[in-house]
Amino acid sequence: MKTFNVAIMGATGAVGQQMIEQLEKRNFPIKEIVFLASSRSAGQEIEFKGKTYTVQEAVPESFEGIDIALFSAGGSISEKFAPEAVKRGAVVIDNTSAFRMDKEVPLVVPEVNKTDIAEHKGIIANPNCSTIQMVCALQPLKEQFGLNKIVVSTYQAVSGAGINAINELKNQAADFDNAPNAEAKVLPVKSAERHYPIAFNAIPQIDQFTDNGYTYEEMKMINETKKIMHDDTLSVAATCVRLPVVTGHSESVYVELEAAPTVEEVKQAIAAAPGVELMDDPANQVYPMPLMATGLDEVFVGRIRQDLDNPKGFHLWVVADNLVKGAALNSVQIAESMIEQGIV
Amino acid sequence: MKTFNVAIMGATGAVGQQMIEQLEKRNFPIKEIVFLASSRSAGQEIEFKGKTYTVQEAVPESFEGIDIALFSAGGSISEKFAPEAVKRGAVVIDNTSAFRMDKEVPLVVPEVNKTDIAEHKGIIANPNCSTIQMVCALQPLKEQFGLNKIVVSTYQAVSGAGINAINELKNQAADFDNAPNAEAKVLPVKSAERHYPIAFNAIPQIDQFTDNGYTYEEMKMINETKKIMHDDTLSVAATCVRLPVVTGHSESVYVELEAAPTVEEVKQAIAAAPGVELMDDPANQVYPMPLMATGLDEVFVGRIRQDLDNPKGFHLWVVADNLVKGAALNSVQIAESMIEQGIV
């Protein structure tokens, strides 16, 4: 069996840790592995398959001899080091937003568009967490019934904003009576002017605002979905909201299909889709929730209902672990698909 | 000035307490007031305008001589006592769902359809909390641009499920590390078979499920909106979700209008609407959130955006205190409107 030299860039972060766990769990065919990070995190130790590794400070030469480099250390790090890795013969799978909308860079969710991988010129982008789980759930509907319009409202966990956001939520949640006046330094965006408490609150801002009144997170869902699904005419309307949830993004997705299937046909299509698990039994109160999806690989879909006023309209409630399928797992699956397709 | 004999049915509950506060704050023209409850709560004392009152157990005779009775003690109590109050000459303003869809009973949000009050036959219904704030925000758009379709996803606070739900959230939130295994006895529905932790979670179930896969809460939003807005052809698609928020419902509302106004025209319509406050300045991170809306009377609207693929589509983020405008304040405003219109 062919094995590969793998580098993890951003190995000490929340997503980097998940990447390491996925590589180990899935028994990825590794020849040698190297863990990279900024100078701040270099020197830390990481356990992998019973061996201890020291995290090294990333420099361009770190990528000499690397076959596959998984990046998740922020957009500016990707912009700086991904071209250096490619120059040295590595294929970069980048989890940041740096290259996602670049026409030369495939944006891939293997369940949806793995054949796009072949067109890579060194970099393959991993989509935004909230986009990945939505397109996994909608691809089977697109294939079987045609997809005309998506209206999505998200319910997103703080772990997408890093370990500091998790600690902020934890500290605020412990002081119930002080909720409106809780100290806030991280959310909604660390570098933003104003910060708001997240415990016992809902913040309708994820990432900064663009000039058109949408946030970057909302624009990612709109633009990435069209790119992954190869459909510029697909209408996507998105509102992204941060919640006092640690891990697990939920999405209330309303779709207008080209056809008018029965709700049973929609459920069957979801149940048969790869990477997706139907979890939908209202009579027994069975539906997905972020607390139950934490740590799991699947995209869970429930609350499937036909619009009472429009036979082509359907509601879905889509939940997945934003660090697993929303980030680390999808990156590793892209690498596996490359191998399977003989691209690396 | 004419004054009225007023009864509060369910005076010791969360909404009852807010009703008392609103009557006092708004200087409602009261001749005499009587506080009623079940035998379990009878005997408790209530302060009102500097005087101490004892809560009495409700019996049919409690309504002798009463002009206006505000009910908020559960549907079965309303079914039992509202007809008794009407028989004795009172007008009942009922905050439960018992009579809302009854053709003989006006369902009223004064900012939208106060002229319906005149058609009452003794009972006037107060709509569901999540419906009230949505129709307040959408009425000005309906009037100026026509309203074709609503797709709403809610972010609802636990206080809508009573004081036990608030305590459950408080206890669970204090034990961060145990979140997935937290003890749950109240949510999503106290009488339901299964209960789930609400802290650090999102539960896509409010009230019980109906046979069509929708919850009663979702069906309330669908049916009540059509009734209040006098438009059976208005398409309403709703998903209702309970969050770890104490007070303040948020709603991600997508509307398709008949016309295609500019986003500025939509903002102006919202800003000019009664009971509604425009809070929309993304450049300065100004948008409504439940923690800031708690205890306030207004319905706050922000994040107003035009659909990038459809000039008739608009997003709104609508937040209000579910116990104030969503319940107690609206009931008191119905009473004030009755007086203003000379109906009582």
Give a written overview of the molecule.
2 copies of one chain form a homodimer. By secondary structure, chain A is α/β, with parallel strands linked by helices. Chain A has 9 helices and 14 strands. A 6-stranded parallel sheet of chain A has the order 5-2-1-6-7-8, sandwiched between helices. The first copy, chain A, is globular, with a radius of gyration of 20 Å. At the A-B interface, β9, α5, β10, β11 and α8 of A face β9, α5, β10, β11 and α8 of B.
Give a summary of the structure in a few sentences:
With 344 residues, chain A is an alpha/beta fold. Chain A has nine helices and 14 strands.
Name its key features.
homodimer, 14 strands, 6-stranded parallel beta sheet, 6-stranded mixed beta sheet, alpha/beta, 9 helices, 344 residues
Write down the oligomeric state: homodimer
> Biggest chain pair contact, residues each?
A-B, 64 and 64 residues
Q: What is the molecular shape of chain A? A: globular
Helix content of chain A: 25-40%
Count of extended strands of chain A? 14
Instruction: Give the strand order, joined by hyphens, for the main sheet of chain A.
Output: 5-2-1-6-7-8
Give the mean pLDDT of chain A. 97
Spans of chain A of 5+ residues with little confidence (pLDDT < 50)? none
State the end-to-end distance of chain A.
Answer: 13 Å
Describe the sheet with the most strands of chain A.
Answer: 6 strands, parallel
